[in-house]
Design brief:
By secondary structure, the protein is an alpha+beta fold. The chain contains 21 helices and eleven strands. Helix 1 packs parallel to helix 3, helix 2 packs antiparallel against helix 3 and helix 19 packs across helix 20.
């Protein structure tokens, strides 16, 4: 691990306590004016006496009080009957299979609003920050993930019966929406799938991605590329650096912070973006004050600032992953780079990827059965290409979206090639039949690699010692024992992720899907009414299936759609249909198909 000072350690520990209070301190009952007065008083005394302990206690009281107040606000009784008024769009409208969904703010409360295609009006063409005349009914929000509900401050669900746009736009969003439209126009020459990935890579807009694209990026460990993060923020500052160098200190600071705020609004101020923007702002202030800032201290202070502003942000998975990934880069990337074999460019790339993956593993494993074993090599290829696409979208893309469409499309051709490369990496990696890294496998792999790196560091030190004691000959980089040790480690890793062959028998994927393997080892997939393509693909990935000689479906549209999605992902030998509009029993069909080879 990297060397961490005492002050950094204390600040990091305090940030952890602040997040814990925001998440679990709502039962303390710290709400109301008395607690606010107490916090302000303690903070004032702490500043006056320069006692960080008093300031810390004041911050904790503020966080507990604000978190409790926000939860109480969300749990207030919902209004009854038809509701109408002028609502602000908090998110960009998203087309679903049967309706359009958007988060709105009406009378100081936020709702997940849905509108059927028959009464949606101009809703799909609007963007966040715009205001609409809206009418509908409110009901409780059920079935949604609790973390998503809390982090978005959602009070309920709003069923839209009537909606019409207004000319009013939030001032913060007016310029940001214009930039988004320019970047969107720059993708006019791309096909639907390429455009969806391009917008996701540049501004984190994932509304147009197909279910298959989302599955492929998740299965290959590349989902983070489609969410704007600190890398995008660093690119914004890099693009603006020529202007910032020519401006004076105060003007350059004002320009940089303005650009960061504008970029946050353009990307819809998602928690990872807020983390990166606040962290960059704190770093800029430290530079302008000629003070040396430690990365861990800046990250800890960033967490404290964001949680004080919005305590419920701790429930956002994106915030948790962003903080952990940044922590991993700060603490683990340099030690890994020093100990990994290979040239510097490869060691640097691998250390960054591994550090982020190890740090975020606890959260990812909490939501998934395992981490994709192909994530590391896939990221080594896709991340550099994604960086170029981000830079191209923020520069060439903005220019291409401001000129004639045919000329802009020509300028965007190289960017489109890189988008295709990233798409190909995700598609190829998602088909690799390796076992996912479950907690046990991941622990075994980490222990094995850590033991090897420790041994290798000691072996290099011993070789240097022997060289110093001899005639000064340069030590060889790899000895026989080193090659043997590296081979053993590689074998252990391959055994941990080795695919397992599906055994003979039935594997019920869902009520509408069954996977079977007969005695001739001929996989069969049976789909009936209600089958969901992503669910089927995830199950087949768990079975490490690459090809399916036979797919059997009924005449239902859902089964046909699921079969089409499976056919795009896996090699299908043939497809047959059981004539039935009401669905077939997939188990009976699979058992029948298994009886013959």
């Amino acid at each position: 691990m990297a060397t961490v000072g005492r002050t950094e350690t204390k600040l990091a520990a305090f940030a952890v306590v602040v997040m814990a209070v925001a998440r679990y301190g709502t039962g303390l009952g710290m709400i109301g004016l008395p607690w606010t007065i107490l916090a302000v008083g303690l903070g004032g005394v702490g500043v006056r006496l320069r006692r960080m302990t008093l300031i810390g206690v004041a911050v904790l009281i503020i966080v507990a009080s604000r978190s409790t107040a926000q939860l109480h606000a969300l749990s207030r009784q919902l209004p009854e009957g038809t509701q109408s008024g002028i609502a602000r769009l908090v998110t960009d409208p998203t087309d679903g299979q049967f309706d359009v969904q958007v988060v709105i703010e009406l009378d100081g409360r936020r709702y997940v609003a849905s509108s059927t295609f028959s009464n949606q009006g101009m809703l799909p063409e609007l963007l966040a920050g715009q205001y609409v005349h809206i009418e509908g009914t409110v009901r409780p929000l059920q079935g949604a993930p609790r973390g998503w509900v809390l982090s978005n401050h959602l009070a309920g669900r709003f069923k839209i019966t009537s909606v019409s746009p207004t000319s009013r736009v939030d001032p913060l969003y007016r310029q940001a929406n214009d930039l988004r439209r320019r970047i969107d126009r720059s993708s006019n020459g791309m096909d639907e799938d390429r455009r969806a990935l391009y917008l996701g890579l540049v501004i984190g807009d994932d509304r147009f991605q197909s279910e298959l694209q989302q599955y492929r990026f998740k299965a290959s460990g590349l989902t983070h590329l489609l969410a704007v993060s600190g890398q995008n923020v660093s690119f914004v500052l890099a693009i603006a650096s020529p202007l910032l160098r020519r401006a004076g200190p105060r003007l350059s600071m004002a320009i940089a912070i303005s650009l960061l705020c504008l970029f946050a609004v353009v990307t819809r101020a998602e928690p990872p973006v807020l983390r990166a923007v606040v962290m960059a702002t704190i770093g800029l202030f430290a530079i302008s004050a000629n003070r040396e800032s430690q990365a861990l201290s800046v990250l800890s202070l960033t967490v404290v600032v964001l949680v004080v502003i919005d305590p419920l942000i701790v429930h956002a998975v994106g915030f948790q992953l962003s903080v952990l990934a940044t922590l991993g880069l700060i603490v683990l990337s340099q030690p890994l780079s020093e100990r990994l074999p290979g040239p510097m460019w490869l060691r640097s790339a691998m250390s960054v990827t591994l550090a982020a993956q190890v740090a975020t593993a606890p959260v990812i494993l909490g939501f998934n059965d395992g981490i994709p074993a192909v994530a590391t090599p896939a990221n080594l290829i896709a991340v550099p290409a994604a960086g170029v696409v981000m830079m191209g979208g923020l520069t060439v893309g903005l220019f291409a979206g401001s000129i004639r469409a045919d000329v802009g499309s020509i300028l965007m051709v190289p960017v489109g090639w890189l988008v295709d490369l990233i798409d190909w990496v995700a598609a190829f990696a998602s088909r690799v039949p390796l076992a996912p890294l479950t907690p046990i496998r991941l622990l075994a792999m980490v222990v094995t690699i850590t033991a090897w790196l420790t041994w290798r560091t000691g072996a290099q030190r011993r070789r240097r010692q022997r060289t110093d004691d001899s005639a000064g000959r340069q030590p060889s980089r790899w000895s026989l024992e080193g090659v043997i040790a590296a081979t053993l480690v590689l074998l252990v890793v391959l055994v941990l992720v080795a695919p397992r062959r599906a055994g003979v028998g039935l594997e019920r994927i869902s009520d509408a899907a069954v996977f079977a393997n007969n005695t001739c080892n001929t996989p069969i997939l049976v789909l009936s009414k209600g089958a969901k393509g992503v669910q089927v693909l995830e199950a087949l990935s768990g079975l490490q299936v690459r090809s399916i000689p036979l797919v059997v479906t009924d005449d239902s549209a859902s089964a046909r759609r699921a079969a089409a999605m499976v056919g795009k992902q896996h090699a299908i030998g043939s497809e047959s249909h059981e004539s039935s509009n009401d669905g077939v029993d997939p188990t009976e069909v699979a058992q029948s198909a298994m009886q013959s080879c």
